[in-house]
Amino acid sequence: MVIYNRFASIYRDAMKDFSMRLETALKERGMTKAELARRCDVPPQNVAHWLARGGVSKRKLFDVAGVLDLYPQWLGEGEGPINMRMAAFGARLAAARKKADLTVERASRQLGISADELEKTEAGASWELKPALADYAALYRVAVDQLNENIHFIKTVDSGVGNTEPVDVRGAGRVPLLSWVQAGEWTSVESAVEAHQSDEWVLCPVPHSEKTFVLRVRGASMEPEYRDGDWIFVDPEGPTENGSHVVVMLDNAKEATFKKLVLEGDRKFLEALNPDWPDRIIRVNGNASILGTVIFSGKPR
């Protein structure tokens, strides 16, 4: 995984407007405007129009972000992590800094950068890495490969031999990747899952409770915002309010489902985001349990 690249000179200006963010992303991906148009199924002049106008429709924004491996919020508004890869990298840096018992202020001073720059990097919101990754590794007393790994999950390790012990996968902000059936059983779990109960653990790049877990989106019911195969980070202690995207267990169902929560007075509904989805709205009348609220999402690589 390469964090720093040859386009660093334009990154400082890349957050200013949509056009600059789109141009930067195209260069980062090595993609032409014509290729972007083809993959978004639009005429080439549409891309030129987006760049000239400095914006794109919300529906098309998700298509463009998906093609370029970007988070829609970053592409559209310049806020939040750039993508899952950068968010995971930032989370690894932050976890290593905390394990080294360094504050942002102290670490940034020793690295020769501002606290704001370090916080931006740890948030996954910066294309440019300053100083070199080796400097971070030396300061945090970890191997460069540990910071630069291109894998978002790790396998638990327990050989059963007496002189070994399981890896503490719950450290450094990691949460378990569950199946939808496992998620349906999550309400019966009183504390965070033990290491042997999940083979894959994912770095969560945002604040979360110990009960947070990850699911892979299946199907098209929540398009265009969520695509099949995307990861959603679900926090059972997250706020549930009108408009929240929630994972729910319906009575008599074998596995959980994922929908938008709609509150109208005393009535509750679950709504699919896809306007073409059949049976898009489900009335909830004491026949469902909310397992958690989606606090983050992304596309694994």
Question: Could you give a quick summary of the protein structure above?
Answer:
This protein is of the alpha+beta class. It has helices at 8-11, 18-29, 33-39, 44-53, 58-68, 72-77, 84-99, 104-111, 115-122, 133-140, 144-148, 180-184, and strands at residues 153-154, 174-176, 201-203, 213-216, 231-235, 245-250, 257-264, 267-271, 281-284, 288-298. It folds into three domains: 8-77, lambda repressor-like DNA-binding domains (434 Repressor (Amino-terminal Domain), Orthogonal Bundle); 84-148, 434 Repressor (Amino-terminal Domain), CATH 1.10.260; 152-301, Umud Fragment, subunit A (Ribbon), CATH 2.10.109.10.
Low-confidence stretches: 1-15, 150-172, 187-196
Mean pLDDT: 78
Structural class by SSE content: alpha+beta
CATH architecture assignment of the largest domain: Ribbon
What kind of assembly state do the chains in view correspond to?
A: single chain
Proportion in β-strands: 15-25%
Total number of distinct structural domains: 3
Sheet with most strands: strand arrangement: 4-5-10-6-7-8-9
How many β-strand stretches?
Answer: 10
Q: What is the C-alpha radius of gyration, as a whole number of Å?
A: 21 Å
CATH topology of the largest domain: Umud Fragment, subunit A
CATH homology-level superfamily of the largest domain: Umud Fragment, subunit A
Would you list the SSEs in sequence order as H and E? HHHHHHHHHHHEEHEEEEEEEE
Give the overall silhouette: globular
Helix content: 25-40%
Main sheet?
Answer: 7 strands, antiparallel
What is the CA-CA span between the terminal residues?
11 Å
Number of helices: 12
Top-tier CATH class of the largest domain: Mainly Beta
